[in-house]
Amino acid sequence: MNIEFIEKKLQEIYAELEKDVMEILMDESLDKKNTNLRMQPLKSTKKILENALDSIKMVDKLGKEDLNR
User: Fold this and answer.
1) pLDDT score recorded for residue 14
2) Can you tell me the distance from the alpha carbon of 46 to that of 53, in angstroms, rounded to the nearest whole number?
3) Which of 33, 40, 41, 46 holds its CA 20 to 30 A away from the CA of 16?
4) Whose CA is closest to 46, among 68, 28, 19?
């Protein structure tokens, strides 16, 4: 499994999420409540992706350990 490739693609997604976050933060028409409501899905998405990467790394590590036995 090519973990580096997966990490690179996730970094690209994180960069897009950061652009979306900055767009929301710079929108002066939004009050604090609406800003927070629009930010929550972005934060959740990033956390889900981070957890998925951790899971992929763990599966890869366990797979390599099984091959070495």
Assistant:
1) 97
2) 11
3) 33
4) 19
